[in-house]
Specification:
The complex is a heterotrimer.
Chain A (H helix, E strand, L loop, with lengths): L16 H6 L3 E6 L23 E5 H8 L6 E3 L7 H9 L6 H4 L3 H8 L6 H26 L6 H7 L11 H22 L1
Antiparallel strand pairs in A: 1-2, 1-3
Chain B lengths: L6 H13 L8 H23 L6 H39 L5 H4 L4 H24 L15 E6 L4 E4 L5 E4 L4 E5 H9 L3 E6 L7
Helix pairs in contact in B: 1-2, 1-3, 2-3, 3-5
Chain C lengths: L3 H9 L10 E2 L10 E2 L1 H17 L8 H20 L6 H29 L1 H10 L10 H21 L13 H4 L8 E6 L3 E6 L5 E6 L4 E5 H4 L8 E3 L1
Antiparallel strand pairs in C: 1-2, 3-6, 3-7, 4-5
Classes of the chains: A mainly alpha, B alpha+beta, C alpha+beta.
Chain lengths: 192, 204, 235
């Protein structure tokens, strides 16, 4: 109870489970030189070494170290779901997209991806606030129309085209639950 | 991506995340395996360094990768231990100074000791308040809106003495009308449950 | 709150007060005696509580005020106990006592939560603070922090780092330290004309004046310094 009373703020933490999970997201990389003893990174081949020009997927935490050297061991591009074409879809119809499929930690991973050396990093960072904002508005609109709804299962049935619960990223779920609880507590207090 | 480092340590984190704020059993096996992996990585790096290999950039990659994996494992292990301690700390506030049996079953001896130490630190602090008269910060968790509350007794408790000196017999299933502030501890320990909130005598 | 809060004080007098209408702390060790009415004390604590709830970081402690209020509370409880069970004032007095106790408890709880959450950050601040500057914590809170960290670190070492390779064993406060998000946005009401430095769109620093009576939604960081003095209130 004690630490739950703190206003939750969105800052990175060494111990935060979500940060650790988000940094496991896989990043497509290409080796820039022969990497000795790294053959195990490519499960499709048996060599001890990893030849230059090989495509491998590395989790963000490994991609970061391998790409940020003076002479980078790998070059990288952003994962599929953060590419230009997917970003366009999100920009056009933010509320419809199933972010869970693109996740499982879309926003958190995005924040980490932005710290990687890539041309796309800035564009991804710019796109995030807009996406989140539009989806939260869609969430709020549906919720206020369905105040009598008790469970989140009901909501996903009734929302139609609006933001479906099972499409929500964990961050959005948390925003949703916090707002719902605050709203219910206010109602209780006003009624009593 | 089979054979990637840090997979086992990550399992610790995933398990905690799945349980969302509750304490699952301690995964001693996985912890030990993650520590073993750290030892292997460390020794591989030491061998590479002692063979004077670092001169050649091709061999540097593996060194960096292993080091990153060492840091990753360390972070996962520490986050696992720390997050469990946070859940255990919250226990003190949600359930009082006695650990519920079903949670205790999932705790290691060291975690039980941590809880006891935390309890003591908290008690010392609370006791120092008000010029050592003390103030129990684990009470008064909600702003008082009601004066009296109707409660139902969940288990036989016996005589409960109220602050004004009178006492009431808390027999299982009996219902009583008692001052809110004096019921809080009983509600927390699940001896009674609130039936209905009463309106306060003075409405705003 | 009903007026009998002050009436109770005048009926019974409280420790250390010079006159029936004021509550003073005439502690020999205090450099000056601050007197204020119980109502003023309660308002001050209410503001401190609101600010502490809303501010991302730990604010300066209201040590004297809390101790005063606790003493006042004890007297109120004694007096309430003296009333007849059937006395109509009993319920109302009890209500006020409960309210004040809630205020103090909540305030101190939030501080403990912050101390726990940002423990390494606070420890570093405390260790690097120059001895003239006041601490962010009361002596008892500092003791709590010290014991809390010892308990935490000893566990992390025994269960974790002690079993790791030699060069990985260090527990580094800078790495583990979480600090609160000073860039969170808050609602602010300005009570005194003040000015703050903000970064404008080009990254240059700019002085912005805040007029008394105005309200803003603003990031916490630029206004953090103004909160303790009361020039701005968080709402």
């Amino acid at each position: 109870m004690s630490t739950k009373e703190l206003r939750k703020s969105f800052s990175p933490s060494y111990f935060a489970l979500e940060d650790i999970l988000a940094s496991q997201t896989r990043v497509p990389c290409k080796t820039e030189m022969n990497l000795a003893n790294c053959g195990f990174l490519d499960p499709s081949q048996e060599n001890k070494d990893l030849a230059a020009g090989t495509q491998v997927e590395l989790p963000i935490w490994a991609a970061r170290v391998m790409s940020k050297q003076k002479r980078a061991f790998v070059s990288l591009r952003m994962p599929k779901f953060y590419s230009e074409s997917y970003r366009e879809v999100l920009k056009a119809e933010p509320a419809v997209v199933d972010l869970n499929k693109m996740g499982p930690h879309y926003y958190q991973s995005a924040l980490q991806l932005c710290t990687l050396p890539s041309d796309e990093a800035d564009k991804i960072a710019e796109s995030l606030p807009d996406i989140l904002q539009k989806r939260v508005i869609a969430m709020a609109d549906s919720y206020s129309l369905h105040r009598s709804v008790k469970s989140t299962d009901d909501i996903s049935n009734q929302l139609g085209n609006s933001l479906k619960f099972h499409n929500m990223d964990p961050l959005e779920v948390e925003i949703f639950n916090n707002s719902k609880n605050a709203s219910e507590e206010l109602d209780d207090w006003l009624r009593s | 991506m089979s054979g990637m480092y840090g997979e086992i340590a990550l399992e610790l984190i995933k398990e905690l995340d799945r349980h969302k704020g509750k304490l699952p059993p301690f995964q001693e096996n996985e912890l030990r395996q993650a520590l073993d992996e750290m030892q292997i990585l460390f020794e591989q790096n030491q061998r590479d360094v002692s063979m004077n290999i670092p001169g050649n950039p091709e061999f540097l990659a593996a060194l960096h990768l292993r080091h990153a994996a060492l840091e990753r494992n360390k972070q996962c292990i520490l986050a696992y231990l720390y997050t469990r301690l946070k859940v255990i700390t919250d226990l003190r506030w949600d359930h009082g100074p006695v650990i519920p049996a079903e949670v205790r079953a999932n705790m290691t001896e060291q975690e039980v000791q941590f809880f006891a130490n935390y309890n003591k630190t908290l008690a010392n602090y609370m006791g120092s308040l008000g010029e050592n008269h003390g103030l129990d910060l684990t009470q008064d968790l909600k702003p008082p809106k009601t004066l009296m509350v109707e409660i139902r007794v969940l288990q036989d408790y016996g005589e409960f003495e109220l602050e004004d000196g009178t006492s009431v017999l808390l027999k299982k299933d009996s219902v009583h009308f008692l001052p809110m502030s004096q019921c809080e501890a009983l509600v927390q320990q699940k001896i009674v449950e609130v039936v209905q909130k009463q309106k306060s005598l003075h409405q705003k | 709150m009903a007026g009998q809060f002050e009436r109770m004080d005048t009926e019974n007098g409280t420790g250390g007060s010079a006159s029936p209408d004021t509550f003073g702390r005439s502690d020999e060790e205090a450099e000056e005696t601050v007197t204020m009415t119980p109502r003023e004390l309660l308002t001050k604590l209410h503001t401190a509580w609101m600010n502490e709830r809303l501010a991302p970081d730990l604010l300066p402690p209201q040590i004297e005020e809390i101790e005063c209020m606790l003493e006042l509370l004890r007297n109120m409880e004694v007096n309430t106990a003296k009333l007849e069970k059937k006395d109509i004032r009993l319920g109302v007095h009890k209500m006020e006592v409960d309210r004040i106790r809630y205020l103090i408890s909540s305030y101190l709880r939030i501080r403990l939560a912050k101390i726990q959450e940002y423990c390494w950050d606070l420890q570093t601040k405390e260790n690097t603070r120059n001895s003239q500057a006041p601490s962010l914590m009361s002596p008892e809170e500092q003791k709590f922090l010290k014991e809390y960290i010892e308990n935490l670190e000893s566990h992390l070492k025994n269960m974790g780092t002690q079993h790791m390779p030699r060069t990985m064993q260090a527990l580094q406060p800078q790495t583990m330290s979480t600090s609160s998000n000073l860039d969170s946005f808050l609602f602010l009401r300005v009570s005194q004309d003040s000015s703050i430095i903000v970064d404008d769109a080009d990254g240059r620093e700019e002085e912005v004046s805040l007029e008394a009576g105005s309200q803003h939604i603003i990031r916490y960081r630029p206004v953090a310094k103004l909160v303790p003095s009361g020039s701005v209130d968080l709402v």
